[in-house]
Amino acid sequence: MKTIGVLTSGGDAPGMNAAIRAVVRTGLANGLRVMGIQRGYNGIINGEIFEMTSSSVSDIIQRGGTILRTARSEEFRTEEGRKKAYNVLKVFGIEGLVVIGGDGSFTGAMKLSNEHGVKVVGIPGTIDNDLAYTDYTIGFDTAVNTVLDAINKLRDTSTSHERVSIVEVMGRRCGDIALYAGLAGGAESIIIPEQPYDFNELCRTIIESKAKGKMHSLILLAEGVGGAEDLAKKIEEITGIETRATKLGHIQRGGSPTAFDRILASKMGARAVELLMEGKSQRVIGIRDGKIIDMDIVEALSMKKKSDDYMYELAKILSF
Ligand code: ATP
Predict the structure, then answer these.
(1) Nearest to 17, CA basis, from 84, 87, 91, 69
(2) Is the CB of 66 under 6 A from ligand 1?
(3) Structure confidence by residue, pLDDT tens digits, 269-292
(4) Are residues 105 and 89 in the same domain?
(5) 9 C-alpha to ligand 1 centroid (Å)
(6) Are both 135 and 150 inside the same structural domain?
(7) Theoretical Cys-Cys bridge with 158: which of 100, 135, 151, 216, CB 3.0 to 4.6 Å?
């Protein structure tokens, strides 16, 4: 293999730049040409491809977002779109592709590989931590720390006013951001899609907390369960305690990546290139029990993500 390409696809995540840097510099250190592809799969189809040098990735390890930009591509979902993409990759001599993104991006990579023989390796870049085959995805740790920072600030003002504070965080199907930030931030309640929750019990907890002398209640809500505004109204109606909703939104996707995310991204980026040099394809990189692993894309995508019941119960016990 002489030339590889790298792209970011789907939602951006802090640490994607550190992964790009690792791919480019590992590739160059091993005598490969590395091509940067802009705007995800659209960038292949539109030929937004340029040769990367070591200095193309200077001064980016600490930056959030992705220097390659990211996009969602409807055209790439079609067979014709992927054929076009393959033809463009051929023109640029790209034989191997590193795709940094989530499950959708991995599925696209797999199809491109099945249909046209392009060698592909996926790196999990998404703040949601919604991929079952890996303990962590790049960007998750930074997002949790961003939420934690917001919680700390909300605690101050909620305590002063003796309010209930509901913080709505990202996570449509996977409640990991709420769970991890909730445990780390000492939330009274954590509401996530994977765990059933009882509204009456929630109100009881709030009322009992107040009776015990707690100055505030903090509730972490994953967006997949519902909106914070609606829940705040309902809680206020039942408990009579002033309840405020804060939706953190896209700030969770930005910011300088944490040391954990930078190190994870660096290791994963390097491993992806090594796999391509070994002639491997249709693999995704992950981390399990602290070790970098790789696995077949189909097998990885067929795994069902489970919520950490122990952490969920622990958060409940510790907030008592
Ligand atoms: P995130 O977790 O941030 O949403 P993702 O990679 O899952 O990231 P998607 O929007 O699902 O994000 O996918 C990104 C792109 O991958 C899509 O715009 C499309 O081009 C391609 N893709 C997704 N699913 C498929 C599919 N089933 N077949 C072909 N291409 C796909």
Answers:
(1) 69
(2) no
(3) 999 999 999 999 999 999 999 999
(4) yes
(5) 7
(6) no
(7) 216
